[in-house]
């Protein structure tokens, strides 16, 4: 479903300038009712979601936390815990978190091991031999050895999380009693059939996972999406949804700029649940929490999340561009190219790290336009 480029710009200008003249209020209300899914939600609706709705997270968001420093990880889980009475988790996203958690932890362990090995090779090749330069003074050698010790300690700490994981314990406690029911075999089979039909027509969300996952794993996003709508309908409350899966089957991306959630998702959510819906990446969830619930989030934590998502965003957009070029018959083969790693798929599931790339700067927000 397309729309003229001027349409989105007109909608944004109306919001930033206070909307059309009062005489047109009735018409504007009708326009909002019919076409509101193409617009960013108003601040009043957004604030109401933060004060009365519930919060939900997909697996990519929860798994990406393992890639942050201990300080940032603590701030993020503390924010989730602070909203514990109003968090809900679709069963599918909880399952993906539990299933991929050890994979993500081991990836961090391997990162520590690779970094330590690189420094070890550097020391043995360039520093240990005393017959020629470079020569380091004792302070520099001590600092280098301290870095390696810190890496080994970090590796050991991450390895321990495979079996004793305080973060996972907090997640399980926070979502205890707030996880949607496990679907029956018949219900899951029906959802997979629905996903197959939707993916054939490129109906979001989830169809982009077909490229990197086999079926039925690729249907996970759709299963979780349906469960999220069912929670909203049964509880009669809107949803703030946080995902670090930044592929274009979740987000409307125009010229490498993420505008906001796909309009089809906002529309379907409202039609099937009767409730409001909005979506953030982790970065913008933290910024919104500062604004709407006065959360005390350190700038360092937001910067760390922003940088991480900017890297994944770049990888995700590279994948989109590569797929487009392939569909147009353009030869894009690179002799030593590697697939992006980190997140939960190239944009969200077991790779640790999907995100949108800002048009300029790492701190772009969804719905900037």
What features would you describe in this structure?
- The longest helix has 37 residues, at 91-127.
- Strands 2-1-3-6 form a four-stranded parallel β-sheet.
- The radius of gyration is 23 Å and the shape is globular.
- Strand 4 (251-254) and strand 5 (257-261) form a beta hairpin.
- The chain has helices spanning 5-16, 25-35, 43-52, 59-64, 70-82, 91-127, 138-160, 166-174, 185-200, 220-235, 263-273, 282-292, 299-327, and strands at 54-57, 87-88, 239-242, 251-254, 257-261, 277-280, 343-345, 348-352.
- The protein has two domains: 41-101 and 168-352, no CATH class; 105-162.
- With 369 residues, the chain is α/β, with parallel strands linked by helices.
Please give the largest β-sheet: 4 strands, parallel
How many H/I helical runs? 13
Query: SS-based structural class?
Result: alpha/beta
Identify the overall geometry.
globular
Proportion in β-strands: 5-15%
Mean pLDDT: 83
Strand order, main sheet: write it out: 2-1-3-6
Helix content: 55-70%
Which tags fit this structure?
alpha/beta; four-stranded parallel β-sheet; disordered N terminus; disordered C terminus; 369 residues; two-stranded antiparallel ribbon
Summarize this, please?
The chain is α/β, with parallel strands linked by helices and 369 residues long. The protein has helices at 5-16, 25-35, 43-52, 59-64, 70-82, 91-127, 138-160, 166-174, 185-200, 220-235, 263-273, 282-292, 299-327; strands at 54-57, 87-88, 239-242, 251-254, 257-261, 277-280, 343-345, 348-352. Helix 5 (70-82) packs across helix 13 and helix 6 (91-127) packs antiparallel against helix 7 (138-160).
